[in-house]
Amino acid sequence: MDKRFSIPVVLGILLFWQPLCSQARVFHDALGRKVTLASVPYRIVSLAPSITEMIYFLGLGDRLVGVTRFSSFPVEARKKPRVGTYMDINVEKVVTLDPDLVIATADGNRREDVEMLEEAGIPVYVVNPRRISQILEALERVGHVCAVGPSARERVDSLRRRVAQVKEAVREKDRPLVLLVINNKPLMSVNRSTTHHDVIELAGGRNLAEDQPVTYPRLSLEEVIRRGPEVIIISSMDRGGEHERARREWFRWSAIPAVQKGRVHFIKSDLIDRAAPRIVKGLEEMARLIHPEITWH
Hints:
Helix 7 (195-202) links the parallel strand 9 (177-181) and strand 10. Strands 4-3-7-8 form a four-stranded parallel beta sheet, sandwiched between helices. A four-stranded parallel beta sheet has the order 10-9-11-12, with helices on both faces. The protein folds into two domains: 23-128, Rossmann fold; 172-290, Nitrogenase molybdenum iron protein domain (Rossmann fold, 3-Layer(aba) Sandwich). The protein is of the alpha/beta class and 297 residues long. The protein contains twelve helices and twelve strands.
């Protein structure tokens, strides 16, 4: 080939493909909002700890330029600039970080903060998972938005296999009545509209507070004794032995079947409170507490 023609030919090819490569991509988020990205996002701000965990799970931690307070997992996230709490975003700080994508959650982030960011010309993609299956779908979607779709699908499939193993392990088991305690004083639990409820159900239990009209209902001790949970699980952040004292207090009430059988347990709050990849580990732990007799690989 005549080398005099190689450079113009290559330049022509590049010029031809440039508009295609720089073409904006359009997505629809969990709320049906249209989100347009001019290019692959390499400067991402997360507006919730759960989203921060998602980004790291997808292998994109180096793209995070801002996170919210309490984004403590993985430990690398603690070094990222903070933009407030997920319910009180410092919009000005987010803008100064010059992100090309902000990822928000409908469960906590304020609508006015999202609108202010969009008015500043920053695209905001909103996730809204309420069930474990939806968390996994959200992970895949975020991976697609960040242009790592095939890798995201492979990582999420590994989580789906673990969920399937738990479901199979408890499929033919009896379903004991479970009281999940998310606060000790006052005594509070969760109803069927929560991710926690989904974890209990998938782990082979029945949620004692599922029919309560309030999302996080207060329960009386008299009601708990009357209902007779077979398993009591205390969601714990391991603060200064507080929850261990709460566990010992349950053993004063020997009329409760869970107490009679010594089935009052702890589970780490972060494993079941956040709509993040670690909730699969939370599901596995919940299943072990509800059905200690089961095994899976």
